[in-house]
From TrEMBL:
<dbReference type="InterPro" id="IPR038293">
    <property type="entry name" value="ATPase_inh_sub_z_sf"/>
</dbReference>
<dbReference type="InterPro" id="IPR009945">
    <property type="entry name" value="ATPase_inh_sub_z"/>
</dbReference>
<protein>
    <submittedName>
        <fullName>DUF1476 domain-containing protein</fullName>
    </submittedName>
</protein>
<dbReference type="Pfam" id="PF07345">
    <property type="entry name" value="ATPaseInh_sub_z"/>
</dbReference>
């Protein structure tokens, strides 16, 4: 019976690690997206840091990426930056790849 319990514990631990890694990748991705958008808006380094944190926080409004995309598109538009939703979605996907790469290199 112990062998099955050990397997079950190992599977649960792997699930927790995978879930934590997915959360960290998403948070890093959102921070990178915030930095990307801040650069287009011409923000100062301090403003960029604050904005990147605000983008990360925006992801807690609802599940999925729509809250983040809506925020970034709205902020870029309000700042007079010529952009659209597909451009931001593409940037989000690119930042996801970069965030994953960064976190997996750290391991």
């Amino acid at each position: 019976m112990t062998m099955f319990e050990d397997r079950e514990r190992a599977a649960e631990a792997k699930f927790v690690r995978d879930d934590e890694m997915a959360f960290r990748i998403t948070a890093r991705r959102n921070r990178l997206l915030g930095q990307w958008a801040a650069e287009r808006m011409g923000l100062t380094p301090a403003e960029t840091d604050a904005y990147a944190k605000a983008v990360v926080q925006a992801d807690f409004e609802e599940s999925g990426d729509e809250d983040v995309i809506r925020k970034v598109v709205g902020d870029l538009t309000a700042a007079g930056v010529d952009t659209d939703e597909p451009t931001v979605r593409r940037a989000l996907e690119e930042r996801h790849v970069e965030a994953r790469r960064q976190l997996l290199e750290v391991r």
